[in-house]
Amino acid sequence: MADIYIVYTAVDREVARRLHDVLTTRWAVWWDEQLVGSYPQYIEAEMRKASCVVYVNSETARDKDTIVGELEIARKQKKPIIPVLIDDTEAPYPLGTYSAVTLGAWTGDQSLEGWKQLVIKISEVVAPREKPPRPDTILEDRLRLPGLFMSVSSHETQLSPEDAISVAAAFRYPNVLLSAYDWDPGRLPGAGTSAAEQIADHRAAALDALRKAGSLILMDSGNYEASRRGDAQWTPKLFAAALARAPHDLACSFDVMNPSRDPKAAFDEIVAGVHRDRAFTSAPIVPIVHAPRLDAGGHDLEHFPILLRDLASELRPPLLAIPERELGPGLICRIKATMRIRAELDALPFYQPVHLLGTGNPWSIVTLTAAGADSFDGLEWCRVVVDRASHRLNHFQHFDFFIDQSMNSPYEVTQAAVRSDDIHFAGKTAIHNLDYYAEIAALLQDACRRKALEALVTSLLHQANTRQLTQAVPDLFK
Fold first, then answer.
1. What is the enclosing helix (H) or strand (E) of 195?
2. Mean of the per-residue pLDDT values for the chain?
3. I want to staple 50 with a disulfide (CB 3.0 to 4.6 A). Which of 5, 46, 317, 433 is the partner?
């Protein structure tokens, strides 16, 4: 027995196929690809079994007699009908008065607001049989999940922001996080001088090259740098000016650094901040949600998963960002906290991706992915050097011992950089790291598609550490 019956015309078959393929992961779905024999013989019987009808409306469909006939049968059977608009054509009378969702030329992007509206409407009629699965991509296929962003910051890294951006552009790294703080003229080295103007010009040129390389740019709020430097003068107004100055594809919210321990008050604070920040940019806003602080130190996580679920339900963001460091003192605590968050978010009708801020350690990335996180950012690529053989991080100055790994890289840009006399030590080390993180991202995405995360985690952590992990968190890979 089907939960959903899809009505569509042959011209719109590709959209109907995408709808069928994605909806089938959570509901029983019927469409005429399953039909055997005479169409009129089955249509009324199959529709009678279904709980609701999803109608793909288009210029071709609205005036087609067979489509009008199917919809009339659905109305006579008193089936809830959800029109899905894939062009500017109004739905036929009387469906024009029905609550519809707009998908446009939908490619299967589950981060689209119209898609979230559709699954919410369906869930109101018939409960899903499965929790929402992690999509392979979001943001019109620009961000593959799990995704790794390389962070760029002026605070305690081996590369200036302009140099880091240039290295990422040369490597054509797909996802980069920048800090709005580093795009404020008053916070550049030598602010107010010609030297500062030159730095600003170099950063702008580097960012232009990065965007031409096709990178997805996530602009952070700048509160990380401001808090580390004790800069109490960093404000939403300066953040807005930085967003206007630096082109980007996504922007984090100007975070509420110490939200109320009262969940309702914290919810209101964060939602108000996101609505304010949406006026600063046309790009989607990624809410940063901090856990309330405890007087004795640490963070109060008791109501945190519910707060995140309520925020996701209200704001429906492409990503929901959480500082990893606030999820517990050790990795196992953080894994358990992430699992609780994922369980709560999976109660939503749609899949809500989670981004963990400040997560660049390979062990953390793979284990927290297994726990339910979907994307990460970290500064490790421009602070330390990774040993590809052990997947461990070492002092930046130890790159000398890992040059051979870069010499054997499958990426020509890495091999060329290591051999070049024109690229300084820090640049070579950073490219070595980018090479590694690009490979880990690809392995992680492949493991998720094949449902083989446990094997990948074991290959990084090795048997003894994986055994300890599964003993501490028995449900991690279930």
1. helix 194-212
2. 96
3. 5
**CB contact at 8 A, 87 and 59:** yes
What is the residue-wise DSSP string for 324-368? Answer: GGGG-SSHHHHHHHHHHHHHHHTTSSS---EEEET---HHHHHHH
Q: What are the tokens at 31?
A: 């469409």
Q: Return d(Cα 376, Cα 52) in angstroms, integer.
A: 38
Say how far apart CA 167 and CA 377 lie, in whole Å. 17
Burial class (CB in 10 A: 0-12, 13-18, 19+), 415: middle
Q: φ and ψ at 275, to 5 degrees? A: -65, -40
Task: For residues 454-460, give the mean pLDDT.
Answer: 98
Q: Please spell the DSSP secondary structure of 152-166, one letter per residue.
A: --SSS-SS-HHHHHH
Topology classification of domain 4-125? Rossmann fold (3.40.50)
Q: What is the CATH code for 137-472?
A: 3.20.20.105
Tokens of 84: 């899905």
CA-based nearest residue to 372, from 339, 414, 394: 339
Spatial CB neighbours of 311, under 8 Å, sequence gap ≥ 6: 267, 270, 271, 287, 289, 320
Report yes or no: 211 and 247 within 8 Å, Cβ to Cβ: yes
pLDDT in tens, 297-316: 999 999 999 999 999 999 99
Cα gap 288→224, rounded to integer Å: 11
Domain boundaries, the chain: 4-125, 137-472
Taking only the tens place, the pLDDT of each residue in 314-351 is: 999 999 999 999 999 999 999 999 999 999 999 999 99
